[in-house]
Amino acid sequence: MRRLISLLAVACVALLMAGAALADSGPPRTSKQTVRDEIAAAIPTATRKQDADRLRDALKALDESLDPDLWVDEYHPQPKGGEKVFDREKAAVHDLIAIQNDKNSQFDDATLQDWIDRIVRADYEIAKRARQDALANPGGYDQAAYDKSTIEFAKALQAYDPDNPELSEGKPEEAIAHLKNSWKFALQSIKKA
Description:
The protein contains seven helices and no strands. It has 193 residues and is mainly alpha-helical. It has one domain (27-189). Helix 2 (28-42) runs antiparallel to helix 3 (49-65), helix 3 (49-65) packs antiparallel against helix 4 and helix 5 runs antiparallel to helix 6.
């Protein structure tokens, strides 16, 4: 019990610190669409086959994450199947990191990092909205499931905070996995009215 209380205290502090930093940057689906369009525009400029192939893979993963069937609206993935949004984005980030780690890549690290950060920020927004929805639910919410969501959100910030990368572990793929879990637990916490 003490461990849970300690984790929750740390999570609450992390959430308070992140509240201002992770301000609403617009609808997550729209943000991802913008990144997707920028990647699509960069593919014809790739002079290395490896870069072009990885960008195409990232583009394909983002296209799959933007599938309208996976979304309720611009802020909310479908409760059933919406986890695929996070899985595909994690794959896209993996491809972008591979380009970034390639010493022969022609692409600027800052551009790649910007795309990664914007994808991760969008996932933070999805998880944040699901958590807000749980708190605002007229039927209430299950505290234990919500606490799990809080812990996963804090773990995501520890793994990777795009607004304070020096304070995190620099693991955006891990952060996306924790954000998916935070989102799922937030949905599970919502009680039926």
